[in-house]
Design a protein that fits this description.
mainly alpha, Helix Hairpins
Length: 79
């Protein structure tokens, strides 16, 4: 199932975490099927991997936004 980032951004953080876990389980299952040689569509592996990356990117963006609003962001200055 292909999920657009725009729709993922509308989800709550907890829902995103659950979606990530679901996708990781799906990816693991697809890898098991691939090993047995019965995977009909190898493109499913790439789609699952990219969906996981999309979700993790959004979660990381939210974490960094939260860190900035709390004032705990790293300034990047070297002293």
């Amino acid at each position: 199932m292909k999920t657009k980032a725009k729709k993922l951004r509308e989800l709550a953080t907890d829902e995103l975490r659950q979606a990530c876990q679901d996708r990781m389980k799906e990816y693991f299952d697809l890898r098991k099927v691939k090993v047995t040689g019965k995977l009909e569509n190898p493109l499913q592996l790439r789609q699952a991997r990219r969906a996981i990356a999309r979700i993790k990117t959004i979660l990381n963006e939210r974490a960094s936004e939260k860190a900035v609003t709390n004032g705990s962001a790293v300034t990047g200055k070297q002293g």
